[in-house]
């Protein structure tokens, strides 16, 4: 006996659904979610971040802790209590000066004056230094005529000529700016000159074939090519200009007192707490300025 089975079409909500549609639904519902890979990538980024902190943050933190420990050892184990005022322990500097609004407020006002002198001095040093570097790059005659005097500015003892600067230009803002320029200008001259004479000769020949003018060659070829070297000079000068501003403050006390003026006052009065606190603030300012130009320098090199 033969049994015949007939296929009856489905009815209801599944009616009209083909086998391919059913397979698609099954496949979609069985697809894995992307939360697993996302969590893995997030975990890997976290591990890299932690490794970077350990690699770059741990050594400075350990050296800082060691320095503070040595400071305490000198204050309490080496210095006699009657002479401890020469190097008070760190917590006394913190509470007596850095956390005292009257003391730290005066220091911050003076630091602002020094910062303004530093900015003005850096701008003039950059403008003059780049101009001199450009002139020196125009030919060996100009290089031989100018470079020895740039070296003289680098090696001359600034403290020896500070009295002359005061006699010639007074004891105010102008004299402080001149000291900054003298100290900071040499790295800008040297690095600008080096960058300009290091431009590829093939590029020069291409501009010659295009009949470019001297200004076009300088603006479109030499300056862009020399920019990384120039930024290195600016970064070096940024730290030196802060030193020049502090030296100018110490010797030219007319007008608003800078942080260097306060350093000299605290030294004369044996106010070691305030003296160390002012040194710390001046150092932090120099680090911030140098860090800004380091970031700019890295950005310029990355763009190339």
TrEMBL record:
Please tell me where this protein is predominantly located: membrane
Which keywords fit this entry according to its UniProt record? Cell membrane, Membrane, Transmembrane, Transmembrane helix, Transport
Instruction: Kindly give the SUPFAM superfamilies that the UniProt entry links to this protein.
Output: MetI-like (SSF161098)
Residues that span the membrane, as ranges: 56-79, 110-134, 146-169, 175-197, 237-255, 275-300
Query: Which parts of the sequence are annotated with region: Disordered?
Result: 1-43
Q: How does it sit in the membrane?
A: Multi-pass membrane protein
Location in the cell reads: Cell membrane
Q: Where is each ABC transmembrane type-1 domain found?
A: 111-297
Positions with biased composition (Polar residues): 17-36
Classification via PANTHER family: ABC TRANSPORTER PERMEASE PROTEIN (PTHR30151:SF41), ALKANE SULFONATE ABC TRANSPORTER-RELATED, MEMBRANE SUBUNIT (PTHR30151)
Per the record, the similarity remark reads: Belongs to the binding-protein-dependent transport system permease family.
Name under which the protein is recorded:
ABC transporter permease
Q: What species is this protein from?
A: Gordonia tangerina
Organism phylogeny: Bacteria, Bacillati, Actinomycetota, Actinomycetes, Mycobacteriales
């Amino acid at each position: 006996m033969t049994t015949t089975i007939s296929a009856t079409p489905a009815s209801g909500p599944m009616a009209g659904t083909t086998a391919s549609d059913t397979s698609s639904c099954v496949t979609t519902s069985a697809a894995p979610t992307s939360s697993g890979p996302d969590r893995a990538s997030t975990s890997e980024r976290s591990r890299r971040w932690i490794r970077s902190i350990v690699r770059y943050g741990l050594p400075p933190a350990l050296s800082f802790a060691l320095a503070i420990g040595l400071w305490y050892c000198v204050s309490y184990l080496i210095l006699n209590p009657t002479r401890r005022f020469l190097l008070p322990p760190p917590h006394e500097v913190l509470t007596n000066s850095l956390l005292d609004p009257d003391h730290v407020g005066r220091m911050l006002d003076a630091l602002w004056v020094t910062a303004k002198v530093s900015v003005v001095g850096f701008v003039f040093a950059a403008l003059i230094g780049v101009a001199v570097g450009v002139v020196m790059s125009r030919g060996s005659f100009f290089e031989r005529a100018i470079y020895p005097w740039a070296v003289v500015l680098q090696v001359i003892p600034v403290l020896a000529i500070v009295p002359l600067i005061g006699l010639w230009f007074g004891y105010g803002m102008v004299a402080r700016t001149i000291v900054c320029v003298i100290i900071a200008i040499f790295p800008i001259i040297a690095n600008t000159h080096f960058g300009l004479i290091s431009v590829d000769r093939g590029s020069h020949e291409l501009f010659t074939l295009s009949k470019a003018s001297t200004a076009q060659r300088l603006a479109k070829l030499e300056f862009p090519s020399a920019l990384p070297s120039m930024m290195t000079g600016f970064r070096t000068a940024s730290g030196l200009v802060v030193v020049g501003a502090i030296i100018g403050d110490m010797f030219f006390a007319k007008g608003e007192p800078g942080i260097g003026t306060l350093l000299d006052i605290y030294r004369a009065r044996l106010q070691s707490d305030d003296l160390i606190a002012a040194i710390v603030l001046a150092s932090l300012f120099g680090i911030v300025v140098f860090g800004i130009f380091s970031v700019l320098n890295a950005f310029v090199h990355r763009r190339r």
